[in-house]
Design brief:
441 residues; six-stranded mixed sheet; 15 helices; 22% strand
């Protein structure tokens, strides 16, 4: 076995013993005894020593690989393989799912067979030791997924604040009142400055989903298959985050979305969208005390045409020119088709605007994956058999929480009509106005 891989496996076993020791104390609700403290310190010292040994060995191999040698060219090419971002994470997922299914091959054997040129996959397996029936994607591989989530998901692309959740929890202090600064004369006493502080707590909640993957794709080691699995993983997480960021109920099991956290900042339209509503939303945010705001819109695609074609009484387009540049009323917008559109006769929907740096996403650890034991999954209203369709169902679990640091940083317009009598009448008036303008010309 490779020396580095052997040392990493040994270190992983030591860290596991340390965790078991601490978990036992937590369950017993007591502190370390003198003997247990000595055992823990010895394990920690050994883990640190192994980490240093691994770094030295990796550095030595890096130096040795830089020496040109004819018989080492093939190995050097393998180590220098360049991959698209997230591809190695997809490979890990595929190999882990196949290993969970197989009775004959281990993770290392499947990785060697499918990706003989990718030594990093087998090394990463040490950090992704299976537990609770699943595999934890190593943090360094999951970190490759995060930039893809920012590109794919609307929420993360808005410039939100991302935070780690140590031990699954994080308490943030927020200032809810300004410090009391006053002008004073020389040698005169300075009055007390009383700052009003609030608190926001993030506590990791479980985001779980089922992703059906074709067995043919799992067994295929081509780049196209790897890319497909990567994109399915990213799209599934991004969609769940986008929906929850707006509509999360804020229960014990679900994060709180903007419609709940900022319910007092709702503007009821109860009709067609108008320029007055857009101006009201912008005015509401600009009147709030926000430092260096990162303002932006989230708009459902169904309203794009309404906003783009909106005109003044004399037939001038209001937002058309700037919308060509991706802005609405001076601020960038994103089309978000996870914003709900009702099935009612008016097709009610919403628009969101705010300072997105005050929307927080806290993450505890990386993605855990496992083979789902379910024989089928629901696609809309249809039940699909995984067995009959030659699919493997992957269960993915993330531990995250969302929060809004300042409620006044967001506003949303509700009950906007996208169809129905009011909308049809408005379109008719708009068309008549255009015809009159053409006749005058």
């Amino acid at each position: 076995m490779d020396k580095i891989l052997q040392m990493k496996q040994k270190r992983a076993g030591i860290i596991k013993k340390m965790r078991e020791l601490l978990n036992g104390l937590e369950n017993a609700q007591r502190s370390l005894s003198a003997g247990e403290q000595q055992e823990y310190d010895n394990l920690r010292s050994e883990a640190v020593r192994l980490a240093d040994d691994i770094v030295r060995e990796e550095e030595m191999r890096s130096l040795e690989s830089s020496i040109p040698a004819q018989n080492n060219l093939i190995r050097q090419r393998k180590q220098e393989e360049k991959l698209e971002v997230g591809i190695r994470a997809a490979r890990f997922v595929k190999v882990a799912l196949l290993a969970a299914r197989s009775r004959d091959e281990s993770f290392d054997e499947i990785a060697e067979r499918m990706y003989p040129q990718d030594e990093y996959i087998r090394a990463a397996m040490v950090e992704g030791t299976p537990g609770d029936g699943g595999y934890m994607i190593p943090q360094n591989l999951y970190n490759e997924i995060i930039p893809l989530l920012r590109q794919t998901g609307v929420t993360r692309s808005m410039g939100i604040t991302e935070l780690p959740l140590p031990n699954g929890n994080l308490n943030l202090v927020k200032q809810t009142g300004a410090a009391n600064f006053k002008w004073v004369g020389e040698n005169q006493p300075i009055g007390n400055s009383k700052v009003t502080l609030g608190n926001i707590k993030l506590a990791a909640k479980k985001l779980a989903g089922i992703i059906p993957i074709s067995n043919e794709l799992l067994l295929d080691s081509s780049m196209a298959a790897d890319r497909f699995v990567r994109d399915e993983l990213v799209n599934g997480i991004a969609e769940a985050e986008d929906i929850t960021s707006l509509y999360g109920a804020g229960s014990a099991n679900a994060p709180k979305g903007i419609t709940v956290a900022c319910a007092t900042n709702k503007i009821d339209v109860n009709g067609k969208i108008s320029a007055a509503v857009i101006y009201q939303m912008v005015g509401k945010i600009l009147s709030a005390k926000l430092t260096n705001p990162n303002l932006g819109w989230r708009i459902p695609g169904v309203l794009w045409a309404d906003l783009y074609s909106m005109q003044t009484e004399n037939g001038s387009y209001i937002f058309k020119d700037e919308m060509k540049d991706g802005k609405l009323c001076g601020y960038p917008f994103k089309i978000d088709n996870n914003i709900t559109v009702g099935d009612d006769e008016n097709g009610l929907t919403q628009i969101f605007f705010g300072d997105w740096k005050h929307f927080l996403i806290g993450t505890a650890g990386a993605l855990q994956i496992s083979i789902s034991q379910d024989a089928s999954y629901t696609d809309g209203s249809k039940q699909v058999s995984a067995f009959e369709n030659d699919l493997t169902l992957m269960r993915g679990i993330l531990r995250e929480d969302f929060g809004v640091r300042y409620e006044e940083a967001f506003v949303f317009a509700d009950a906007i009509h996208t169809k129905g009598a009011a909308t049809a009448a408005a379109f008719k008036l708009q068309e008549e106005g255009q015809e009159e303008n053409q006749q005058e010309v």
